[in-house]
Structure formats: C-alpha cells, structure tokens
Amino acid sequence: MSRAQMSEDLDITVITGLSGAGRSQAADVLEDLGFFVVDNLPPALIPKFAELARNTREGPSRYALGVDVRSGSMEDLHLALDELRAQRVRTRILFLEAADEVLVRRYEASRRKHPLGESDRVSEAIAGERALMEPLRGQADVIVDTSNLNVHELRDRLRDLFAHTEADEALQTSIVSFGFKNGLPLDVDLVFDCRFLPNPHWVEALRPLRGTDSAVRRYVMEQPETEAFVTELERLFALLLPAYVKEGKSYLSIGVGCTGGHHRSVVLAEELARVLDRIGFGAKVHHRDISRG
User: Fold this and answer.
1) In angstroms, rounded to a whole number, what is the distance separating the alpha carbons of residues 24 and 263?
2) Integer Cα distance of 99 and 77 in angstroms
3) Are strands 283-287 and 36-39 parallel, antiparallel or unpaired?
4) How far apart are CA 250 and CA 240, in angstroms?
C-alpha cells in the first residue's frame, strides 16, 4: 500500500469548541463508537501523531483528538490541520458550543474555573474564548449546539452523525425544524423561513395539534404556496448537494423555521426529507421546538 493510500485510510476527528459545551461527553461517545480517543494533545504534535498512526498497521483507523484552549496555540492547530489535509488524511472538525447564559450556568453549577478565567467573571472568560475560537468554528465540518441538549440527547445526536462510516454516505444531512421565537439554531448551515405560509395556529381545530398530525400536514401541504416552495427547494437541492459532495463536504445541517416550531416548520422539514430522498440523499429529521409551549 502506498503512503498516500495509508494516509487516506486514516480518519481523524478533532473534537473542539467552547469550554463547558460538552467536549468530554462527546469524546466518550466517540470512544463508544470505536474511535481511539486522545485528549488534550498539543496541536503541534498532531501531524506526528498522524504519522505514527499511519505506520501502525494493526492499529485503529478512526481517531478522535480532543483539543481546546488549554492544549496550545490555535495557530498551531490551524497549521496542524493544514498539514493533515496536505497529507490527504481524512480530517474533520467537530465544534461544540452553547449559548453564553447556558455556559455560565454550567460553570456556576460545577464550581469549576474557566480555562481563561483570569478574573472572577465567567462571562468575560467565555466571551474571550468565543472570540479566540471563532476562526476554528468557521472551519468546522460539524457544529453542535448543546444549549438545549442533555447528556442523552447529545449522545444520540453524535451517534446519528458518527456511527456511519464515510463510505456509507457521501454527505450526511440533517434537518431541524424550529420556532423563530425560541431563537435560531446555532449549528445549521442553511436556514429556510416558512412563516409566509398560512398558519394552522389560527385554525381552531388545528391549534392544539402538531405538524406530525395528518390533519396539520394536509392543511399545510394543500396551500398553493407550499407546492411552489417545495418545487423550488427540490430544484435548489438538486443543484447544491452534488456540488457540496464534489467540494468534499461531509455534513450538512438544514434549519426550517416557523413562528413557534409546532406546525409549518415540522411539516416542511418532513417534506424536505422526502425531497432529499428523491434526489438520492437521505436525511435525519429533528423537531427542536415541537414540545415547547
């Protein structure tokens, strides 16, 4: 086997993100999925680690490296990732984040000191870390917002993303429905607003139901605007998804929003999954706000 082929057989996921967002839990999940996990590896050593892994014939092929602000220079990490890609090592970045107020609550509950906590104000340390990590976030293949996830929900989300091998699906796609009144999801690549559609909330018989109910689905899908919207979405994704695959994108997260996340966005998210299936790309669907008041 050539050196290039050995490099391509390596699969390295860098687990990073904001302190308190769930990096340790994510590492545990990936370890359960068969990844060989190394935590707090200095970024400057990552290329050397890859070389050793490449030359270990009997070793695992999938590795997860936990890296955060304590591990060393972010510039060293960017250089290390560039070197891995130059060596044709299959490389991805998993970036975990959460809203500032959630991170503050987590630190207050744990009574731990933030890694950048020079002062007593955790919020200042979080803001500094967010600014420091922003360029890395921009490079991330997968961004997971853990603000509203408990440990079990985070595990399920990561299993959906990483239980597959790259050979199983060229592009792993997820769709989340949400309500704009509860805020935009932080971890989506594309957002579609379906608030222009007639709202089942104003139909008394449909108001207490959800978009998973057949009566709500029928109401939304029978609207002329819905048919036109879905037709345009199918045309758009028939263009976009093959182009994403060609550019080497492995993960795509799509948000579909309405006012409360109960009716229209739920129906459209399910319908979009059917659209993607028709053009050869399966998608997992999650309804973020369907149970919220």
Assistant:
1) 35
2) 24
3) unpaired
4) 13
List of E strands, 180-287 = 190-193, 251-258, 283-287
The pair of structure tokens assigned to 157 is: 């989300």
pLDDT of residue 254: 97
Fold (CATH) for 3-162: Rossmann fold (3.40.50)
Question: Residue 39 forms beta bridges with which residues?
Answer: 66
Tokens 């959460």 correspond to what residue?
A: 98
The model's pTM: 0.67
pLDDT in tens, 179-214: 999 999 888 999 999 999 999 999 999 999 999 999
CB 160 within 8 A of CB 251: no
Spans of all domains in the chain = 3-162, 172-287
* 3-state SS, one letter per residue, for 134-196: HHHHHHCCEEEECCCCCHHHHHHHHHHHHCCCCCCCCCEEEEEEEEHHHCCCCCCCEEEECCC
pLDDT for the residue 7? 47
Show the low-confidence residues of the chain (pLDDT under 70): 1-8, 57-59, 72, 118-120, 164-170
Scored b (16 or more CB within 10 A) or e, 33-48 reads bebebbeebbbebbbe
